[in-house]
Amino acid sequence: MSAPEVQEAAVNQDGSIQVVMIGVGDEKFALDAGMVREIIDPIPATRVAGAKAFVPCVINVRGNVIPLADLRIRFGMPMTEDTAETRIVVIELAIDNEPVLVGLTADKVYEVTEISRTNVQQTPRVGMHWKPEFIRFITKWREEFVIVPNMERILN
After folding, report:
1. What's the rounded Cα separation, in Å, for the pair 111 and 86?
2. Architecture of domain 3-155
3. pTM exceeding 0.85
4. For a disulfide at 23, which of 8, 88, 108, 153, Cβ 3.0-4.6 Å?
């Protein structure tokens, strides 16, 4: 099953979406649960010469070499040191119609939950420090705004 098919399957009949809530810097992101393959503790990473700045290394996850992306770099956030709550979220998405595994560094993984599509907010074109095309939509979770990122666009 490709990543887009998995994402479609994650939308419930009432329009809610099952997501994995992660924290990166001061922001909360909701990753479609259908694309999340596993959540692991940080492991040693190997830098790759000539790699894109936001995907500077690769990691070995059970014999699979996968790129490790840092959303802080892509979104222009300040870099921070890993903490006891830092995790790597391994996701699968389609790039050029091929399933690809990518690790994302998360400062914290909160929980698997559902978010409603009824509280969806349009992405403001002004005042945001990220590119609007990186954001599928913004919604509310526990009275806070959370970002549902467009991972395909972020990682391409």
Report:
1. 14
2. Beta Barrel (2.40)
3. no
4. 108
